[in-house]
Amino acid sequence: MTAPHDTRQLYDQSAADWRRNQPMLLSDYTARPFVMNLCAPVQGRSFLDLGCGEGYVSRQLADLQAGAIHGVDLSAEMIRQAHEQSTSVSGDTRLTYEAGDLRVWCPELKQKYDVVLAVFLFNYLTSQEMTRVLQLAFDSLRPEGTLIFTVPHPLLPWLRPHEFPFYFDADAGYFSGLNRQFQGQIWRRDRQAVHVQCVHKRFSDYFEALRTAGFSGLPEVHELTVTDEHLRIDPEFFTPLLDTPLHAAFRIQR
Ligand SMILES: C[S@@+](CC[C@H](N)C(=O)[O-])C[C@H]1O[C@@H](n2cnc3c(N)ncnc32)[C@H](O)[C@@H]1O
């Protein structure tokens, strides 16, 4: 089935495939636990979760006793599912959500945050759009606050065949493909494929955007792949990705 190129339409249509309270997608194993470690200590700290989807990461933060957590997402259906899960599952008033397009809109925030997160948001934005969102992140952070974000590894689209369990279809080169949207798929452990997109950016574009947005230090950068622990859990699922750079995680202080 061909997936929509429009991101809002894609996520409104596929929201049910993302809904989960346990690790399910490949990146729930290979990226999100690493992000949670970067967030530590979580207890009592406030989080702004940009591109929060149906709230998987926000709910994990709430379970770890975070303070206020506000999630923002383009897809009204993802936000509907996030609301549904926070009220029906935990009745948690620390979790709030709103829908909006961060390319053109800024949420009116009632407070500054200890941590701003963007878990696989920037692969939906061009360099210019990402810089705008990084400026919003900079302005939303307390003076010593931390920005954490993950993206697909910039080289991944050229390293993987078009097959299970993760790929992007690069129809241009590493340099000529800047800001081009590549279509891709990432699989769930139950072998169901989920459509994703990657607006290609190079490592240098992330550094440049951070600097333009006001972040003056050097970010920590982590290149993530499958580990021995993943192989023990499900060798058939994770072995095709062995030694492949899958994701990049960044952490920087304001
Ligand atoms: C790969 S999903 C990740 C969701 C969530 N962060 C997680 O880790 O489960 C990417 C999310 O980014 C959202 N998104 C994409 N473009 C956006 C935009 N311009 N403004 C706000 N959210 C956006 C999508 O709607 C989608 O829910």
What layout of secondary structure does this protein have?
Elements: H1 7-18, H2 26-30, H3 32-39, E1 47-50, H4 56-63, E2 69-73, H5 76-90, E3 95-99, E4 113-119, H6 127-140, E5 141-152, E6 166-169, E7 181-187, E8 193-199, H7 203-213, E9 220-224, H8 228-233, H9 235-238, E10 247-253
Parallel strand pairs: 1-2, 1-4, 2-3, 4-5
Antiparallel strand pairs: 5-10, 6-7, 7-8, 9-10
Helix pairs in contact: 1-5, 6-7
Content-based structural category = alpha/beta
Helix fraction?
A: 25-40%
Quick check: average pLDDT?
96
What is the CATH H-level superfamily?
Answer: Vaccinia Virus protein VP39
Count, helices: 9
- Gap from first CA to last CA: 43 Å
Query: What is the H/E order?
Result: HHHEHEHEEHEEEEHEHHE
Total tally of structural domains: 1
Report the β-strand fraction as a percent range: 15-25%
Shape: globular
The total of beta strands comes to 10
CATH architecture tag: 3-Layer(aba) Sandwich
Largest sheet: 7 strands, mixed
Bound molecules: S-adenosylmethionine
The CATH topology comes to Rossmann fold
Q: What is the C-level CATH assignment?
A: Alpha Beta
Q: Spans with pLDDT under 50 lasting ≥5 residues?
A: none
Alpha-carbon Rg, integer: 17 Å
Name its key features:
Rossmann fold; alpha/beta; three-stranded antiparallel β-sheet; seven-stranded mixed β-sheet; binds S-adenosylmethionine; 254 residues
